[in-house]
Inverse folding.
């Protein structure tokens, strides 16, 4: 286990500036290994110039986010889809 | 599937300190007035942003300690040694001071008072904060779901909310088991030591009862506790965890 | 716009010698986009490839036989911390590129673990860049990029790819991991080139 990551709850704040719904309860599928799981359970690396979320199984980058003074850049290509409960 | 909290996008608000309360030698609760606060669920956290007068700015996350519906939003902060933010919040901040705050954050690591399931709370150190919000919410709403708390602390004096937990336990609101890892209370039957399978078995709900499990604390504690829980037969899908990241109480 | 909190002093200190917007730090923060790769020296390899596909590589043993430079420099992270007077040991990119004949203008650097960053080839030459394997008199720790990292001190530190494994010369610029997501393509701290719009 690498101690450098924290869990997907750490995405809720940064992504909460963009999404009107909480993202941690969404379910996504990893484009690398096909694992389907809760965003709350991804491995988040936030000690960086941006936030990176990786698959808990295969470490594929699922979500990347950069916050600049007046923008958010978001890359979700590591998830084949996201399903939000409403 | 857990219902998402439909919140609207998060924005920064100004929080002002109404009162500070010492909890332990190193932990303090800040009672905050946050105009426009939309309410929260127990288990959620806030991001706190501090800006110095030279423009330097940094952020940390802290779990909400209070139940919803109170006049203040309370955060309990444990000072991390050599920390940049937590010692400021525990030693410097006082009534009237302000900082920026964003929240409530997080829709997964939450307890809803209409959930009838048994609840098992497993806390390590300051991981007790969001779990205490759940316990307080149960009391405030009159919910009857049975609660058990297993709380791992270094020494008796480092247990946050010790008096309140004693009172709640005496009232039958929650069963509390403290696990002392460095020093036990005088006369304690159990020598100091980490949470283990035997202690979990005696203190926690049996896996067969399918409790909703919430584990919170430093990463190492959460990993160890989650491993013990799964080994004891708890369904991993019923275990929710929140780890405090590399900067101590911060994420 | 930001609310100043009475009595809060961050760890960083301002200093007129620093690039704009930077704060001086005494420690050495560890930032990473992923898990620390654990690379065994038995299998470690560094390769340099040109724009037509010719490449050459060094094993750790071969790499250690190259001429080594010891130098002291300042480093600047886009997250606003700067560290002055850091001591390194490494092989100059001039040494690694000595036998490369190329007309390419761009480089894409790849790390173990998949991180990438791009720079103009000329920013890797003429004593401006190294593959560093020693920091502060000791072997470079994995959390800081060991066994070896790229070090390009005149640009923001995200260009100094940790766990470097390959330098690919290209005719067309290819934005790397952070450059493709909002960070400035060049990244000069003295012109405060942090983001795309700078």
């Amino acid at each position: 286990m690498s101690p450098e990551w924290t869990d997907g709850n750490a995405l809720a704040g940064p992504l909460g500036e963009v999404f009107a719904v909480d993202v941690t309860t969404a379910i996504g599928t990893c484009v690398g290994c096909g694992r389907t799981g809760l965003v709350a359970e991804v491995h988040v690396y936030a000690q960086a110039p941006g936030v990176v979320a990786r698959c808990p199984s295969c470490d594929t980058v699922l979500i990347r986010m950069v916050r600049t003074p007046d923008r958010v850049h978001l890359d979700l290509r590591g998830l084949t889809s996201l399903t939000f409960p409403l | 599937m857990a219902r998402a909290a439909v919140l609207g996008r998060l924005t920064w608000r100004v929080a002002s300190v109404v009162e500070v309360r010492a909890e332990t030698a190193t932990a303090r609760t800040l009672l905050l007035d946050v105009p426009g606060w939309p309410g929260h669920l127990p288990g959620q956290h806030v991001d706190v942003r501090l800006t110095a007068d030279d423009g330097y700015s940094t952020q940390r996350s802290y779990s909400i300690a209070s139940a919803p519906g109170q006049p203040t939003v309370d955060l309990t902060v444990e000072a991390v040694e050599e920390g940049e933010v937590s010692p400021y919040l525990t030693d410097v901040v006082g009534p009237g001071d302000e900082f920026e705050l964003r929240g409530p954050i997080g829709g997964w690591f939450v307890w809803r008072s209409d959930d009838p399931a048994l609840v098992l709370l497993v806390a390590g150190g300051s991981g007790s904060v969001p779990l205490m919000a759940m316990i307080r919410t149960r009391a405030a709403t009159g919910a009857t779901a049975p609660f058990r708390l297993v709380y791992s602390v270094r020494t008796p004096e480092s247990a946050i909310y010790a008096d309140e937990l004693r009172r709640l336990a005496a009232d039958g609101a929650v069963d509390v088991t403290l696990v002392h890892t460095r020093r036990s209370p005088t006369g304690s039957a159990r020598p100091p030591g980490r949470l283990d399978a035997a202690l979990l078995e005696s203190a926690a709900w049996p896996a067969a009862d399918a409790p909703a499990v919430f584990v919170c604390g430093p990463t190492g504690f959460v990993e160890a506790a989650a491993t013990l829980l799964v080994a004891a037969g708890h369904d991993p899908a019923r275990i929710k965890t929140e780890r405090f990241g590399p900067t101590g109480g911060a994420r | 716009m930001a609310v100043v909190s009475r009595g809060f002093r961050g760890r960083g200190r301002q200093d007129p010698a620093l690039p704009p917007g930077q704060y001086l730090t005494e420690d050495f923060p560890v930032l990473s986009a992923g898990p620390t790769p654990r690379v065994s020296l038995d299998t470690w390899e560094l390769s340099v490839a040109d724009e037509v596909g010719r490449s050459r590589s060094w094993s750790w043993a071969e790499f250690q036989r190259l001429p080594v430079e010891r130098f002291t420099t300042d480093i600047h992270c886009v997250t606003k911390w700067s560290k002055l007077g850091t001591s390194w040991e490494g092989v100059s990119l001039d040494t690694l590129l000595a036998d490369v004949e190329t007309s390419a203008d761009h480089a894409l650097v790849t790390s173990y673990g998949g991180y990438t960053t791009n720079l103009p080839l000329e920013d890797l030459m003429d004593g401006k860049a190294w593959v560093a394997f020693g920091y502060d008199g000791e072997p470079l720790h994995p959390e800081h990029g060991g066994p070896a990292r790229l070090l390009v001190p005149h640009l923001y530190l995200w260009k100094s790819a940790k766990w470097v494994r390959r330098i690919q010369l290209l005719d067309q610029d290819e934005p790397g991991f952070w450059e493709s997501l909002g960070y400035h393509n060049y990244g000069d701290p003295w012109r405060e080139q942090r983001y795309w719009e700078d």
